[in-house]
Design a protein that fits this description.
Strand order of the largest sheet: 5-4-3-2-1-9-8-7-6
Bound molecules: beta-D-galactopyranose
Distance between the termini: 32 Å
Structural class: alpha/beta
CATH superfamily of one domain: Class I glutamine amidotransferase (GATase) domain
CATH topology of one domain: Rossmann fold
Strand content: 15-25%
Number of strands: 28
Length: 663
């Protein structure tokens, strides 16, 4: 599949149907002024494109595409299936989604359809066919955009149609009902099923629904949405060959329902939407993790940032505006981590509708505004660094991440509600980022040979083969670090007996006989003078040494951090939630042991990230998140200003960014 991205893309969601013709004409002129070269069109246009079943009105869209084309703007054309029009849900109310407690989610917002509905699929796929037949040959077409944020609001549907589809999925997975009974552990609480017909989605129940049923429902729901993507993609491949197909992920946003690491290989190019949370005091750190996880979903290939906001959003309780310079820093963080395009929701701020207070490239205030001036400057900056397009990362550190483990970790009736899946991966990621060390966030089944340091955070659920792969990695010299509540259960959420952490006991040379979760706000002291909270374990050393011990609390005197020499490498275990200092000093030891070097030595919140091209060129992105000037020892030509770096390296203003082609 040829890359749709010979250079960096810049643009956003474009909803011309909300505007009169004269505004649409001005839009193209302003896009040119800002350097916009890609517009996502028709995301929510179903009701306008098909005002009644089977009757299409394409003329207006023809004109939009022609106008964009004559202005030199390429199109990421949506299949328009994101939100069914009112006539469809009125004629077929059976397509409406239903929550676990039986509430129907009605028409009036968006995405009000059951992902398993064959009626919805029939209408949606007919529209996709019509779109592909009409626009496959349009010269503006650069990319197809299937639906929009599949599963954003409707990922988990519990209606009768979903129940049928769930049963079919289970039949496929287990073959016969006895296999399901075993996997779900239905000997417990009189849950044994006599046939698949008796099985339901995990609807609201008097008490905790069966955990494996809940887990399988997550798997099924993610698979169903992926199947919907594939059905549209296959039509596009058939009728519009050679044009790549994407759909926009939300690897961190709103929902944790889609297993994007499984979805990634099905896309011609991965794209992601990322919004900063106003309540987060340091949202750039969360952004960095999100971007590395997106690259993981993309299998290391370049990807697109399909949506972010130029300033405030509309859907948080308090929608904090971005500070001057923040938009460019965020964009450069994404590009540094493999994004080959920076797009926004949306081009022009709406005058009506639920998102009218959402920022845009063209704000309500118009072009005489800070946001617009930054939009134009950013267009120039992206053009100046266009040569990075197509390049990649070459990191030696991997953090293993798995949506199955995430779903399973956060099920109910566990030892502590404080064990949250994202917590440890993000804490380690932050410590590496602070040290200028690049990280890949990848699925446990990824080939681990490129990595010298492998972090296995909260991998509560995994197959035995993961332990085998980690053992092999350590034997050939890698440093492996596993954190608490990992390797506890198999793929069916059955405990591995004989002591925790079952899958990794031998690798780590330890045996935990009891979990000792801590009370809310309880902190314990460790003998390296750091603290820990949330978790402790009654841990016995079998074939490992204690690196750090508990000084007090329920595990007083017991190991908190252990290390076992394995072949040419080592396997570490962290049996508690170390504080920021403890995690930092652990990461320092791990980096020293594994010999992993930073891109350059940097200071806290001055981010440095490298991209490399196959031809040997490399670029270092330097992003100053502090309010102080910074000088970083990177040498070459700074591309945004086009000037060579000084003798001591590249100098940045407070909040400044630089992209240096290395000498
Ligand atoms: C995304 C969505 C866009 C828009 C945006 C607002 O979830 O794809 O259509 O709603 O959020 O932030």
């Amino acid at each position: 599949m040829p890359s749709p991205l010979p250079t960096l893309s810049y643009g956003g969601d474009y909803n011309p149907e909300q505007w009169p013709l004269e505004v649409q004409v001005e839009d193209v002129r302003l896009m040119q002024a800002a350097g916009v070269n890609l517009a996502t069109v028709a995301v929510f246009s179903w009701a306008k494109l098909e005002p009644e079943a089977g009757r299409y009105e394409f003329d207006w869209l023809d004109e939009v595409l022609d106008r964009l084309h004559s202005g030199g703007v390429r199109v990421d054309l949506a299949t328009a299936t994101a939100s069914p029009p009112p006539w469809l849900t009125r004629q077929h109310p059976e397509i409406l989604p239903v929550t676990a407690d039986g509430t129907t989610l009605w028409q009036g917002g968006r995405q009000s359809y059951c992902p398993s509905s064959p009626v919805f699929a029939e209408h949606a796929l007919r529209l996709v066919r019509a779109m592909a037949e009409r626009y496959a040959g349009h010269p503006a077409l650069a990319l197809w955009h299937v639906s929009n944020e599949l599963g954003c609001h409707n990922a988990l549907c519990y209606c009768d149609v979903s129940a049928e589809a769930f049963r079919r999925w289970l039949q496929q997975r287990y073959g016969d009902v006895e296999a399901l009974n075993h996997a779900w552990g239905t000997a417990f609480w009189s849950q044994r099923y006599g046939s698949f017909d008796e099985v339901l989605p995990p609807r609201s129940a008097p008490t905790f629904p069966n955990p494996t049923q809940q887990l399988d429902f997550h798997r099924f729901s993610s698979d169903q949405l992926l199947a919907n993507f594939i059905a549209e993609r296959d039509i596009l491949h058939e009728l519009s060959p050679g044009v790549p197909v994407t759909t926009n992920f939300m690897v961190m946003e709103h929902t944790r329902n889609m297993d994007y690491l499984a979805w990634g290989p099905e896309l011609d190019i991965v794209s992601n939407d990322h919004y900063m949370m106003s309540a987060d005091p340091a949202p750039h750190r969360e952004l960095a993790f999100s971007a590395d996880l997106t690259r993981g979903a993309a299998g290391g290939r370049p990807w697109l940032l399909m949506e972010q906001s130029t300033s405030a959003v509309n859907w948080q309780p308090r929608n904090v505006a971005k500070r001057p310079g923040e938009m460019l820093r965020a964009s450069m963080q994404h590009v540094a981590r493999g994004a080959d395009g920076i797009l926004y929701f949306q081009w022009r701020a709406s005058q009506a509708g639920a998102e009218k207070f959402h920022s845009a490239l063209v704000p309500h205030a118009g072009t005489d505004s800070r946001v617009w001036r930054e939009v134009v400057a950013q267009g120039a900056a992206l053009e100046a660094i266009g040569e990075v397009a197509g390049s990649h990362s070459d990191n030696q550190v991997a953090i293993l991440f798995d949506w199955n483990a995430r779903w399973a970790t956060e099920l109910d009736s566990h030892p502590s509600v404080d064990v949250r899946y994202l917590d440890r991966p993000m804490a380690f990621h932050r410590a590496f980022t602070d040290r200028g060390v690049g990280v890949d966030v990848v699925h446990p089944d990824t080939d681990l040979t490129p990595y010298s340091l492998i972090v296995v955070p909260t991998l509560y659920l995994c197959g035995d083969h993961v332990a085998t792969a980690l053992e092999a990695a350590a034997a050939r010299g890698a440093t492996v670090v596993v954190t608490y509540f990992s390797g506890i259960v198999d793929e069916n959420d059955h405990i591995r007996l004989g002591g925790y952490p079952g899958a990794f006991r031998d690798l780590l040379g330890i045996r935990t006989e009891e979990f000792l979760p801590l009370a809310p706000h309880q902190h314990v002291e460790l003998d390296d003078s750091t603290t820990a909270d949330i978790w402790a374990e009654h841990l016995n050393l079998v074939d490992a040494e204690a690196v750090v011990r508990h000084r007090d609390g329920p595990a007083a005197g017991m190991p908190a951090v252990t290390r076992r020499a394995v072949g040419d490498g080592a396997a570490w275990y962290v049996a508690t939630r170390t504080d920021e200092l403890g995690t930092a000093s652990l990461v320092d030891s791990l980096l020293t042991e594994s010999g992993v070097e930073p891109v350059v030595h940097t200071v806290h919140d001055v981010e440095v990230v490298r991209r490399r091209a196959d031809d040997g060129r490399s670029w270092v992105f330097v992003i100053n998140h502090t309010d102080r000037p910074a000088t970083v020892p990177v040498h070459g030509v700074e591309l945004v200003t086009g000037t060579p770096t000084g003798a001591t390296g590249v100098a940045l203003e407070p909040g400044g960014v630089a992209v240096v082609r290395e000498a």
